[in-house]
Every structure is written in structure tokens, then in C-alpha cells.
Amino acid sequence: MSAELLLVQALNGLQFGVLLFLVAAGLTLVFGVMDFINLAHGVQYMLGAYFGATLAAATGSFWLGLLLALPAALAAGLALELLVFRHLYGRDHLAQVLATFGVILFLNEGVKLAWGAAPLQMPVPPLLEGGVALMPGLQYPVYRLAILAAGLATALLLWVLVDRTRAGMLVRAGATHPDIVAALGVDIRRLFLLVFAFGAMLAGFAGAMAAPVLSVEPGMGDAPLILAFVVIVIGGIGSIRGAFVASLLVGLMDTLGRAALPDLLRLFLAPSPARQAGAAIASMLVYILMAAVLAVRPAGLFPARAG
């Protein structure tokens, strides 16, 4: 692999990692604070992409569409919490898995009815068109760098909110000792609603930011959801720091593995078998990483600690 390709793939991996973090951050808080397995979290990502693409087309402005997509994703998350999820908090994990899987099927069919099965496209804003010269003869898209910057800025803001505010202290405490937090007079239902709504908005923001570089289509949230669960297992359930580090690790390993493994295997195999074997092994790398972390640190790299 050339140095130019390595640099491009590393940036792609970091960009993928920060988008994954936006999805995983809400999921790890919901799981850690509420002990609630929400398989439907990926549809929040999908709805954010649909809201962003639709509102950008309706207003004629990418920025206005992105801005309006955030409260729309928040409202969708609140509606799901009020109508479905809050009735599952006291149920066992199997009931939560089955019910939220049903929500995935329902909403995937719902977006087909509302928007059709054909993919939507969200144009890149003129301000972020073109590329940046990373080195002579190598251009990298400005919009992908903007995704990376927006994701890192959001991660910093989330760290401040979770680690430096009273609400964040309650969230961190609730992730490890929810019964004690409730006994101290905190309205745990309101805390749950706040965490769930914020997580839904983060996932929707990730979907809206990814819309110009991906096809907006039904089921687009399924793959990020699976990787988000891998991230929270690696990083530690309920840990924002763990989710951030694990997201970058997963993003880099997935992207660089798919690019580099076929070339490495060509040292030992013919080109066609090397390409097939490389693709197969690359798709397993993140799960191998998860198994290795669990073998050494069963609670994850950065287990959540009480506030």
C-alpha cells in the first residue's frame, strides 16, 4: 500500500469512527443508565438521514436542513420513548430485544411508505465542495474533513456535558448505581427520558451528516447499529470515553483492514484468492478485536465509573 493510499484510508477510518461514535454514544448511555437494550437505535440514524435529505430539499439549504433535522430526530426519539420504549423498561432483555427488533421492521417499512424504496441523495453544500491538497497530487474531499471536525467537536462537547455538569454527574452515577440515584430524590424517569432523547438526537445528527456521502435508504441504520454494539462492548458499557476510543479503533481497523489485507495476502496467494480472502478476513477484524478485549478486560477498556 502506498503512503498516499494509507493516508487517505486512515482519514476515511477516522471519519467513519467519529460517525460511529455519534451513534454509539447515545446507545452506551441508554444501555448503561437504563439497562435497556435498544436494537432500534439504528433507525434513529436512518431517520436523521431522511430528515436531513428531505428538509434540505424542501428549504433549498443544506445547513437549514441539517439544523432542522436535529429537533426532528429528537421528536422522533421522544415519540418512540413515550409510545413504546418506556413500557419495556421493567421487562427482561429478551422482551426488549424482540420488541425493539419489531420497531426496526415497522420503521423500515414506514420509511418505504413515506419516501419510497429508491435511495435519496443529499447534495454536499457549495461551501464544502472540492478537495484539500494533502500532498502533491493527492486531494481529499473537504466534506469528509468537515464530518471529522464536526464529530470531534461533538465528542468534546459531550465530554464537557457528561464530565463537567451536574446533569452529566447524574448520568454517570446512574450508569453504575441507578438505585442510589433514585433514592437520593432524582426523578429517574426524567433522567431516562433526557438520556434517550439526547442519544436519539446524536444518532440523527450522524445520519444527517452521513447523508451526502451515503445513499439514504431503508435499512441503512442496521450496519452502524451492529458496529455500535461492538464499540460499547470494547469501550465499556456506559463509558463515553470508552465509546470514543473504541469507535476510532473500530473505524480505523475496519477501513485499513479492507484496504491493506488483500495487498498483504498477495505476498502468499494469487491475486484473486488474496482479494477474496482479504475481504473475508477484513470483515472479521473488529469482532476479533472485541473478542481479544473481552478476554483481557471483560468490562471493556474504560468501564463506566460513578460520578
From TrEMBL:
What species was this sequence derived from? Answer: Caldovatus aquaticus
Among CDD domains, the record links this protein to: TM_PBP1_LivH_like (cd06582)
Query: What keywords is this UniProt entry annotated with?
Result: Amino-acid transport, Cell membrane, Membrane, Transmembrane, Transmembrane helix, Transport
Q: Which InterPro entries match?
A: ABC_transp_permease, BCAA_transport_permease
Check the record and name the Pfam families matching this protein: BPD_transp_2 (PF02653)
Q: Where is the signal peptide?
A: none
* Predominant cellular place of this UniProt entry's protein: membrane
Tell whether Flavoprotein is among the UniProt keywords: no
The organism that produces this protein has a lineage beginning with: Bacteria, Pseudomonadati, Pseudomonadota, Alphaproteobacteria, Acetobacterales
Q: Which PANTHER family does the UniProt record give?
A: ABC TRANSPORTER ATP-BINDING PROTEIN, BRANCHED-CHAIN AMINO ACID TRANSPORT SYSTEM PERMEASE PROTEIN LIVH
What family is this protein classified in? Belongs to the binding-protein-dependent transport system permease family. LivHM subfamily.
Query: Under which name does UniProt file this protein?
Result: Branched-chain amino acid ABC transporter permease
Membrane topology term: Multi-pass membrane protein
Q: Where exactly are the transmembrane stretches of this chain?
A: 6-29, 36-56, 62-85, 97-118, 142-162, 191-214, 226-256, 277-296
Compartment annotation: Cell membrane
